[in-house]
Design brief:
Length: 151
């Protein structure tokens, strides 16, 4: 779903550390009662919240009513964009500059050392020249597949 009007996202405040248990209980309860809970999300970077996608707030209330670890009865309504920010992993992009030596940590050239030729931040790519004595070549690879080497 891409932010359509037929369903909303509701953030439920729960006991920190009990998010997965609460999500499991909500899923079982929704299945047993025939509630229209479309998805259940346990955000990896935020403790104490479970996000439900549902059309009717009454279904959210019925799914969470009487649950031991639910702290607030009234859920927070979230926008699709806010949910995506919580769910998408943040990739830490290393600060690279031309001439710097890096190690390739993934892909076909994993484990090889290379020298940075060009960095394209907008595309998330780096062009490198491999420093292996038997395999001299240049390659353009994703920037998250390299890490700077301490010299």
């Amino acid at each position: 779903m891409e932010g359509g009007v037929d369903a909303r996202f509701y953030a439920i405040l729960v006991t920190s550390g009990a998010e997965v248990n609460v999500a499991t209980i909500i899923a079982e309860r929704a299945r047993a009662l025939g509630l229209d809970i479309r998805s259940i999300i346990v955000p990896p970077r935020i403790k104490g919240y479970v996000i439900l996608e549902a059309h009717d707030p009454g279904d959210v209330y019925d799914a969470t009513r009487g649950l031991r670890h639910v702290k607030r009865r009234r859920p927070l309504i979230l926008k699709f964009e806010e949910v995506m920010k919580l769910v998408k992993p943040e990739v830490e992009i290393p600060a690279l500059k031309p001439g710097q030596v890096v190690e390739i940590v993934a892909g076909a050239f994993k484990g090889m050392k290379a020298r940075v030729i060009d960095v394209n931040q907008s595309k998330g790519q780096v062009t490198v020249s491999l420093l292996e004595p038997l395999f001299r070549a240049t390659a353009t690879i994703p920037i998250d597949e390299v890490r700077p080497v301490e010299e």
